[in-house]
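Minutes, methods subgroup
Present: GH (chair), OT, SY

1. OT presented the first of two proteins processed in the latest run. Sequence and structure tokens recorded below as shown on screen.
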Amino acid sequence: MEHIEEKGSHAARKKGGLVTMPFIFANEICEKLAVVGFGANMISYLTSQLHMPLTKAANTLTNVGGTASLTPLLGAFIADAYVGRFWTITVASIIYQIGMICLTVSAVLPQLRPPPCNHGQVCEEADGGQLAILYVSLLLGALGSGGIRPCVVSFGADQFDENDEKQTTKTWNYFNWYYFAMGASILLAVTVLVYIQDNIGWGWGLGIPTVAMFLSVVAFLIGYHLYRHLDPAGSPFTRLIQVAVAAYKKRKLSMVSDPRMLYQNDELDGPISLGGKLLHTKHMKFLDKAAIVTEEDNLKAPNLWRINTVHRVEELKSIIRMGPIWGSGILLITAYAQQSTFSLNQAKTMDRHLTKSFEIPAGSMSVFTIVTMLTTIALYDRIFIKVARKFTGLDRGITFLHRMGIGFVISVFATLVAGFVEVKRKKAAFAHGLVDHPHDIIPISVFWLVPQYALHGMAEAFMSIGHLEFFYDQAPESMRSTAAALFWTSISAGNYVSTLLVSLVHKFSAGPNGSNWLPDNNLNKGRLEYFYWLITLLQVVNLIYYLFCAKMYTFKPIQVVKKEGAESGENQVELANKA
């Protein structure tokens, strides 16, 4: 019997690994190509093709973006609780594919769009049926993204067996190349796809990513027999609530003197602890009461709303401990979000000529962010890790907490520099008498904005990848899709904080003579540099907060049972903590 189990285990270990990456990356690249290719220029499609008013079009995209930032929680829940990551990605990709086909067909068939505008006539807005096709398409896209985003990154990392010494170093390497592939697809979308949409036609501009998405679904399915498939372990949210309820019911009990007296059940925890069982930690002792055994508890058929194992209690502790680190990433996204708003408006007022006949579109300035991010990731993976490894002795070079900290520092400099560049831009406007002419081009090169764009890209290469790696590594194994969804919710929260901050600054910086840090019409008369420096100050405070959280953070202790060797349990736990 033991021989059969070992043989089966050996066969399972052969699955996964680098051979699965082309299939997984193909799915992610095409999903990101579709999302960014649609989103980057969708405002133009809604206003020029469907003749939506600008405010209505902007609100439509905002609502879709808000929905798409929440659906990863739903997709992660379904994957972790019921069907697993593979089938969640597959079904979500098909849903996304249907949405893309609907939108592409509406762009090709004239009867699904209002007639073109004629000179001297009011443009006819899309009717209810035409808008219904649009909304259904966008909703299907949001639902599809919700299943793909949190699961692809976790499913890819699942392909590397953490208990196999030959594969443990591949996980952190995977996160670098996952983000690199995602960035490359974004770069392709904001350049090639946007150009095709504007200059060749929307049928081609939407049809190309639709076909690419179909091919990615086929490629992903072809790799089915190569993947490592981890079975869903039931609803993680239910388990978390059960621990909280059990701890509350037993809140009046005195804590046991020896943690070894707390409830353990390897058979019960087996399906949710395949990568190693979580061990007891001394923090948040009030939750430990959920694992105190009393005479009323039936250990043969335990009522999980009254008693829980140490592993399940530690799952809840792990999620709670991750909260402060999750919150620290919000302000970096808030700072990053200014590139698509105020930095873009700065670019519109500056000389964007690359040659006498070619002018860089203001919206394409994000290329400098993406290129810097991709370059930083490549240098980090090929050079920085090897150098850092000599000093730290860590296979990954530095810990993901250190990586995030470096990203925070770089982001501080990004907004600091942005403020000084805005001062220079306004000085040029004053010098040429263009302060009262917000639509005139100021004779100052747009390339003065490159440093702030590039620094944001460098910060993202450090912080965002470190953040993603942190969620995957520190989340309980059975909740990794949910943890990946938390990464996307931090991005959503960062954008919402940006909206709130802009609204507050616009309201409270208004002067009696109509002055404002963030004026509605004329950026030349504002104090955008003060706004950038306010974000810089907030980021400094956030950095201090993060350093405190990182210093106090307790890594999850795991008892890894090795298939070979006879190391003691204590040594195994310490090894897992160091990793």
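2. SY then presented the second protein from the same run.
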Amino acid sequence: MTALLPPAATYADLRDAFRWRIPAACNIAEEACDRWVGSGRTALIHLHDSGAVERITFDELHRRACRLANVLEAQGVARGDRIGVLLPQCPEAAVAHLATYRMGAIAVPLFLLFGTDALEYRLADCAAAALITDEAGLAKIEPIRNRLPALRCVLAPDLAAQMARAKDTHARAATGADDPALIIYTSGTTGSPKGALHGHRVLRGHLPGVELPQERFPQQGDLFWTPADWAWIGGLLDVLLPSLFHGVPVLAHRMQKFDPEHAFALMARHDVRNAFLPPTALKMMRGVPDPARFGQRLRSIGSGGETLGAEILEWGRTAFGLTINEFYGQTECNLVVSNCAGLFPVKPGSMGRAVPGHDVAILDDEGREAPPGTEGAIAIRAPDPVMFLGYWNRPDATREKFRGDWLVTGDRGIADEEGYLTFLGRDDDVITSAGYRIGPGEVEDFLLSHPAVQAVAVIGLPDPLRTERVTAVIVPKPGITPDTALARDIQDFVRTRLAAHLYPRQVEFTDALPQTATGKIMRGVLRQQYAAKE
């Protein structure tokens, strides 16, 4: 277990001493699994819904990945093909990713709460050749499968039988650092979701940003868990793959619905030492009385996706006996800013300092680095190992993401004299709700397909638990009477057909939407208008 971050007494020393070690030839399957074959180490601890516990070694994980790679290749799936992974936190999901990487194919993780429309868009956009799922996922795919001509292979309930007949050895593809490995879809404010394409270097690129907030991860006895789904970059590349890279076991357990008391008990029962807990989970856990009674022994907690306030930080010190380290990133360029209480003081409200190896700055409106204390755009200098290769089949959108050598995040921030960065807000209207970054454009486009909706704007309004709640402001079609029954119908429409985490928890009806002279909806005006009513 060798960390990428070198020993150092201060943050300045750490930044000065750090050097990237990205081999020209690398494959995520080798780095996250094959390198530990023969070690006897435990890779996954799978807690079944029944309560049964299954421990899976790296050797077994490797054999399963080889078998699945052979099954996929027998079905005609080849290097460069996109493979959808629609599975919960379970060994099968990890195996699906490792098999895909070792084939030189491209993994496309898909969220379990996606409805058929959201799944169809993503699978069609990347022209996925194969999908690995379970019975629940199969039920969602069957109605749309005939509209996905590229999808030649769907592996679901009979997969175990096919793998049992396959060889447990497989020749891993020779891949380079910049060869494509992974597409994770992200949303902006306009148009459809974009697929952020990452190369095999993305795993090593994440490691410093995992090691720092997890207090010099890995240490002897570490064991990692997160309630975040592995379909998102936070679950997959903040937890699962970096832990496997370091030979640290990961607790795999899918909660049907997040239960804060169960989370405390789960971490204590399984001796979890490291956790990624999104701010919404922490807010819910804050309501559990006397958390010390569970006897948890956490060593480190990282949190990201929303800003943590002083109140949550102080509660965390009492509840866990440690300081929660906030971090920052986005799907295109993740884990580039972080706190590390063991190395430098944590300032409430600040998301930390630039992680060693990443050049993060605040840019002014001219694209120049702004002086300390000046608000501007949060940006990361290219090239950077954790940075995406580009948006899948969207060269124009990729170019728009950059300002010279800087990737512009779309977020606003400010930096102080010591290099602490504070997130101030978004300039692209993305909604942050329960740890999810939600692009209103996707939800608006979908709502327009509802028979009662003439026009719609989706905004985020302040929410004490979720940070923001998704709110739909709707102009009904002529002859439609807006009422609570229609609002419920619209909510169910999004929840069941698009995604449960995208549905508007608040629906408002109006006669017209405020627009600019060019016809753009003025979401800022709507946010002010409806926030003032509360």
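Chair's summary of item 2: The chain is about 30% helix and 25% strand.
Next meeting: continue with the remaining queue.
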